[in-house]
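**User:**
Make up any protein.

**Assistant:**
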Amino acid sequence: MSEKPGSGPSGFDRRAFMAGAAGSALVPMTARAAAQDASVSTAQDPALPVDVTLRVNGKDKRLRIDARTTVLDALREHLKLTGSKKGCDHGQCGACTVLIDDRRVVSCLTLALAAEGQEITTIEGLATDDHLHPMQQAFVDNDAFQCGYCTPGQIMSAVACVKEGHAGSEADIREYMSGNICRCAAYPNIVAAVKQAAPEIMKG
């Protein structure tokens, strides 16, 4: 009595068993792949605009923006607050410095979505009515700017420097303002402005 190739005396067909096992192994793999495809298809396209509410200078601003929009671009391109400057766009020059919950940040590297629910203060939000902020006035009094491009970021950083308690000496001011570059090299005047404004800011 002849046997089928691959079958033993008991009639067990090894080829049929292996084919069946392979097929059953493919079922969960196929199901997982289908589930992954479904999750990808239902996930939101990152290129689609999203709704965000930014609190800027004490006012809520509702925006519909690309999820990759930075705070700087939201301010300049969407809210038309152009005081914060785009310098290097790599977080190295400090021209775009703003305060978020009284903490200085480089807005060109901060996503707008990450700042939702926090208080953003820009150079436009420092003055009250017709009165300049003490740091703004000190920059004017000490000629602490030349071309003026870096000045908004310098002023915002200087305000935070004082509030952080780093304006006790010229050495401290230089150290904690070192992230803000002035290509006109008005550094001595900037230090003088910070020293002038510090007592009034701390008093207030």
Helices lie at 14-42, 71-78, 134-141, 151-163, 170-176, 187-203.
